[in-house]
Write a structure and sequence with these properties.
The complex is a heterodimer of chains A (about 220) and B (about 550).
Chain A: E1 2-10, H1 14-25, E2 30-41, E3 51-57, E4 64-73, H2 77-81, E5 85-94, H3 98-105, E6 107-123, E7 127-138, E8 147-149, E9 154-162, H4 168-181, E10 188-189, H5 201-209
Antiparallel strand pairs in A: 1-5, 1-9, 1-10, 2-3, 2-6, 3-4, 4-5, 6-7, 7-8, 7-9
Chain B: H1 2-21, H2 34-40, H3 42-69, H4 75-100, H5 112-122, H6 128-141, H7 150-181, H8 198-217, H9 236-239, H10 255-260, H11 273-286, H12 300-303, H13 315-322, H14 327-350, H15 353-374, H16 388-396, H17 407-422, H18 425-437, H19 440-443, H20 447-456, H21 469-478, H22 490-512, H23 517-532, H24 537-545
Helix pairs in contact in B: 3-4, 11-14, 11-15, 11-22, 11-23, 13-18, 13-22, 13-23, 14-15, 14-22, 15-17, 15-22, 16-17, 17-22, 20-21, 20-22, 20-23, 21-24, 22-23
Classes of the chains: A alpha+beta (about 220), B mainly alpha (about 550).
Chain lengths: ~220, ~550
């Protein structure tokens, strides 16, 4: 299970956001370069289309693979009151044969994307991960070296935290309180809910980036 | 500063109090000069003061948090925020200063609090240190002018002041421009939040929807079918995992065979049949694990020990013999094959060297096959030194198959199949059963041998003087009477051998192996072996074992 919120930020403000996050999280950023391959199984093989994602971390010296399954989001009145999205998520590290295995099982490539950016992992009420990345698409199959951004001027910010059915409310509140720190620069919302950009983003970015002009009184 | 601020605050509060007190009394009240009031701009000052207060308290909270959580604060950030606060305070005070002349400290009550400080605040005499400071500054100022008459001193001072004033103004201008560029607050009023105009907001909204859809549901990222051609240059992390071909989607049954493969082999097995055949050939060749003849290594193709047994038990050979494809089928296969040659070529670049050799050989074979097929079933139309007629002769029956330069071998493959099919059924089944058991690696070393054996069929004698020990098999095959091979031009044989080897594999295999990549692989090898494993198996064995 995980709690997740997403937001967007203009690419020009990403550096300011990084400074802000560095200050809030207190850890250094990790570079992020993940090739995400989304596989869908043949509908003939089952009643429900099943989707699985293979993530290949290209930042490591030896690419590491992870398989991830995202389930349905929590529904109901309680879910609507929570400001983050709570959904089931299963993740596991796998060997590089995973792709072959899934192909053998009948899963076909549905789409793939490449995320390039940075991430912060820290503990603040919950183990929170913030990723700021440019989402790139590949014009040719698997051509990660020639990926182009889907939206050049906008990057995606995603805040996720793993949770379990017992503690998801605490995790959700930790995530939403963290998001308030980012309020000057961006608004975060459940995936699928669009937010737009924040009008104060420019000014906040400037103040974060500036060296500060000191005027003596 | 604090004192001044306190004074300003006091002023404001006093003003407000005065104004509040005044209305009930009809007595002429003391009002501030309207101009002063306007300049003072009480409300604005109050707002700014409050916002500044909030900012400062926020920063203090942050510091508190830092202290509590023991994290290292981001000094740049803090300095930035401090500068903001500083600036704002300065602005407020400056505004007040302009009008402070109109006010005077007027303590209403003198109580214990005020008593001590009042004399100091009210006195106009400078403190001793301040007085010394003042004097020294005055001396500095009037350094060269003490002796001049007063008016000239005044003049000089005035000019100095003007110069300084001009410098300050230009500096102010630069500052203001920079402020505008960075959207800093102006000195008048609180900062106006920049709002996006509608067009911009719409564009951003559009982009945002694109992005969110792409991330969450993959919209806009799906390549249409025709664009799903695998790029020839796969990124490093995928190079070992995917075949160069059309199909990440098609996964051959040869996967089972893969598992026996040693890792160095590239994953050529996935993919279309043509690719698979060729790829698997490479893999088979390279495989060393699970092969009964453990002697074969990944480089075994070139180094295969001359194992005497031509792998009669190989299923490949058996299947080859059994499943002679119809000419049409063969043609289609080869056409397919040719299409994949491109990809093969590219793929070869990625293979390790050894496998490249294999792949190259296979590639050439496939090329040949394709050419052969395209030109017509079993029509060796390539101009070959051997002579065209011979080829045709070959095609007719199990007979004189001239081994043309490589190309002829394509035809050979076809003909071989026919030949094989002409063998007695018993022999075929025997071979087939026998072939089931052996591993590929065993069969592979015989590839060259089988190739040469094919050439033997057409009654050519192979001058198997080749460097390749495998070829020595062929020499043994030469004397295989069953094949009724006549002596052919040894020289040409030598030439052809190499090419035969390469071409041989694919052709036969394609013919037989349509559905199953495994079969293709096995057939490929089997085809080669089949020649050797001809019903005269015993004979061959003997010969090979020599």
């Amino acid at each position: 299970m995980e709690c997740v919120v997403q937001g967007i930020i203009e690419t020009q403000h990403v550096e300011a956001l990084e400074i802000l996050l560095q200050g809030i999280c207190g850890v250094h950023r990790d570079r992020l370069r993940v090739h995400e391959i989304c596989l869908k199984n043949n509908p003939n093989l089952g009643n429900v289309a099943s989707e699985v994602r293979l993530l290949c971390d290209l930042e490591q010296p030896e690419p590491t693979w992870t398989v991830k399954h995202l389930g349905g989001a929590m529904r109901g009145a309680g879910a609507e009151q929570i400001s983050v999205l709570v959904r089931s998520m299963v993740e596991s590290k796998v060997s590089k044969n995973a792709l072959r295995l899934f192909n053998a099982l009948g899963y076909k490539l549905d789409h793939e994307l490449l995320r390039v950016g940075f991430a912060f992992h820290f503990q603040r009420g919950a183990q929170i991960t913030v990723t700021v990345s440019s989402v790139n698409k590949m014009l040719k199959l698997h051509a990660t070296d020639e990926a182009v951004p889907v939206t050049p001027g906008i990057q995606l910010v995603e805040v996720t935290a793993p949770a379990s059915s017992e503690n998801y409310t605490e995790v959700a509140s930790a995530v939403s309180s963290f998001c308030e720190y980012l309020a000057p620069l961006l608004h975060l919302s459940k995936p699928g809910v669009s937010t737009g950009v924040v009008p104060t983003a420019a000014a906040a970015a400037v103040s974060l980036m500036s060296d500060g002009g000191g005027t003596t009184l | 500063m604090a004192a001044m601020e306190g004074v300003a605050m006091q002023d404001q509060s006093q003003q407000q109090q005065q104004q509040q007190l005044v209305p009930p009394q009809p007595v002429a009240v003391e009002r501030l000069n309207q101009a002063v009031v306007q300049q003072l701009n009480l409300e604005a000052v109050k707002t700014r003061a409050i916002s500044l207060f909030k900012a400062i308290s926020r920063i203090l909270e942050d510091f508190d948090a830092y202290a509590r959580t023991n994290t290292t604060p981001k000094w740049q950030d803090i300095l930035g925020q401090y500068s903001m606060v500083n600036l704002e305070l300065f602005n407020i005070v400056d505004e007040i200063r302009k009008v402070s002349k109109a006010f005077v400290v007027h303590p209403k009550n003198v109580n214990a609090e005020n008593a001590t400080i009042l004399p100091v605040m009210l006195s106009s005499k400078l403190l001793p240190e301040m007085e010394i400071d003042d004097n020294s500054k005055r001396e500095q100022l009037l350094l060269g002018m003490q002796n001049l008459p007063i008016p000239s001193q005044i003049e000089k001072l005035k000019s100095r002041i003007d110069m300084i004033g001009a410098a300050c103004e230009s500096a102010e201008k630069v500052l203001a421009d920079t402020r505008k560029a960075y959207c800093f607050g102006t000195r008048q009023g609180p900062q106006i939040l920049p709002t996006l105009d509608k067009g911009q907001a719409l564009k951003i909204q559009e982009q945002e929807n694109l992005l969110r859809a792409a991330v969450n549901s993959g919209e806009g990222l799906r390549l249409p079918g025709d664009q799903r051609q695998m790029t020839p240059a796969l990124p490093m992390h995928l190079v070992d995992l995917l075949p160069v071909g059309d199909g990440v989607h098609t996964f051959s049954d040869a996967s089972g065979m893969y598992m026996k493969n040693t890792p160095p082999l590239s994953s050529n097995s996935i993919g279309n049949q043509g690719n698979l055949l060729q790829a698997s050939g490479a893999q088979l060749i390279g495989r060393s694990a699970a092969s009964p003849s453990a002697a074969t290594s990944a480089t075994s193709f070139d180094n295969t020990t001359a194992s005497p047994v031509p792998y009669a038990n190989s299923p490949r050979s058996g299947t080859n013999m059994m499943n002679t494809p119809s000419p049409q089928q063969q043609q289609q296969q080869q056409q397919q094959q040719q299409q994949q040659q491109q990809q093969q070529r590219q793929k070869m670049m990625q293979l390790p060297h050894q496998q490249q050799l294999l792949a190259q050989q296979q590639f050439r074979q496939s090329q040949m096959q394709g050419l052969g097929q395209l030109h017509g079933q079993h029509q060796m139309q390539f101009s070959q030194p051997m002579g065209h007629q011979q080829f045709q002769g070959r095609q007719m029956a199990s007979g004189h198959v001239q081994h043309g330069i490589g190309q002829s071998q394509l035809g050979q493959g076809n003909q071989l199949n026919r030949h094989l099919s002409q063998f007695s059924g018993a022999a075929n089944s025997a071979l087939f059963n026998a072939a089931q058991g052996t591993s590929n690696s065993q069969m592979i070393p015989n590839m060259s041998a089988t190739v040469s054996s094919q050439s033997l069929l057409p009654r050519m004698q192979f001058g198997l003087a080749g460097n390749n020990p495998q070829r020595s098999h062929a020499s043994q095959m030469l004397s295989d009477q069953m094949f009724n091979m006549g002596a052919s031009n040894p020289g040409s044989m030598i030439q052809q051998q190499q090419q035969q080897q390469q071409q041989h594999n694919t052709q036969g295999a394609f013919g037989n192996m349509q559905p199953n990549a495994q079969n293709l692989q096995s057939n490929m090898v089997a085809l080669q072996n089949a020649q050797q494993n001809h019903p005269n198996f015993a004979q061959q064995r003997q010969q090979n074992q020599q």
